[in-house]
């Protein structure tokens, strides 16, 4: 059985429901994700994990409201999985990040359209902030 099948048969999505709508748990999850991102061996996934961290943070703080709940649950479930110390392959075993990276790659693929919408939101937000800054300077 591969990592994704085992992940989907686990209770990760149920756990995600507990976290996703509880601001305190989301903030804790985001902090743990920040620590996880600093691990060695994640260079290829780091950019996507940073995007996911920002996505979760903006949802938790109410900045990003136009999100797909099902996609959010997939992301939260994947993050809960990777920060759990004893997953399918514990991280302290040499190939231990393989399962984490597999789950993250799968979650990114499953939520690609949602993450693209979030990137558009970020771009629009930056443009609006720059426009407001230019109006103040004039």
Task: Describe this structure as you would to a colleague.
The protein has 138 residues and is mainly alpha-helical. The chain has one domain. 73% of the residues lie in helices and 0% in strands. It starts with a helix and ends with a helix.
Describe what is shown at a glance.
The protein is mainly alpha-helical and 138 residues long. The protein has helices spanning 3-9, 12-20, 23-37, 46-60, 69-83, 97-110, 112-137.
Q: Could you list some keywords that capture this structure?
A:
globular, 138 residues, 7 helices, mainly alpha
Oligomeric assembly: single chain
Radius of gyration (Å): 16 Å
The geometry reads as globular
Number of domains: 1
The H/E string reads HHHHHHH
Overall average residue pLDDT: 87
Low-pLDDT ranges: none
Major sheet size, sense and barrel closure: none
Secondary-structure class: mainly alpha
The first-to-last residue Cα distance is: 62 Å
Helices, by number, come to: 7
- Report the β-strand fraction as a percent range: under 5%
Q: How much helix is in the residues?
A: over 70%
